[in-house]
Every structure is written in structure tokens, then in C-alpha cells.
Amino acid sequence: MALEHFDPRLRANDLVQELKWDRELRARFETSEKEVLDAYPLTPAERTAILDRDFRALFELGLHPYLLGQLARLIYGTGEKAGTSGAATALIRSLLGDQYEAYMAERGE
Questions:
Q1: Within the chain, what is the greatest distance between any pair of CA atoms?
Q2: What CATH number does the domain containing 46 carry?
Q3: Could you give the count of Cα atoms lying within 13 Å of 30 in the half-sphere of its Cβ?
Q4: Which keywords annotate this record (predicted)?
Q5: Number of folded domains that form the chain
Q6: Each residue of 32-58: pLDDT tens digit?
Q7: Which domain holds residue 70?
């Protein structure tokens, strides 16, 4: 995954950056996600992708790949082993879609 889809104008990029750095905003996001989303000029597609945890759609809309991982961690938390957390699993499952099971089988998991 490179920056082929990255769109710096996508407002979700700003949202994720601000969630990373603003503890108060993060707390509000955890308790009132829709209210926080309402405060940003997101497109309907961005909003739906965030609410549906559709990281592939966010990637294709232009969310920076680094911020995809950050958003997954903000939503799902982190894990002890790299790549095995709920955040990492949700991100990989969303990005690979129907290919997820084959990918995991290839890895022997």
C-alpha cells in the first residue's frame, strides 16, 4: 500500500490527527462518536466508512495509510504482540476483504 490514493484534502485525515493529539476529543469520540463526526465537514462516504469501521473504503477515499493504523488503534486499542491486536486484525480484515482467510491460511494462522 503506497500513497496512490492519499488525498491530503480528505477531512478524515484531520479528524484522525486531532484524535491522536487531543485527549478530550478522544474521550468524546469514545462516548459520542456521532457527535464528534458531526463537528467535522466529512463527506457522507467518509462518515459511513468510519462508522462501519471500513478501513479499505477510507484508504480508497484518501486517508493516509499511516492514519489508518492510528484510527484502528484509537477505536480498538492496542495489543501486546505487533500485528495480533484487535486493531491490527480489524485493519487487515477490512483491507483484504474476501482475501483475508486465504491470507491468514498462507501465514499458517
A1: 43
A2: 1.10.700
A3: 12
A4: Dioxygenase, Oxidoreductase
A5: 1
A6: 999 999 999 999 999 999 999 999 999
A7: 11-106
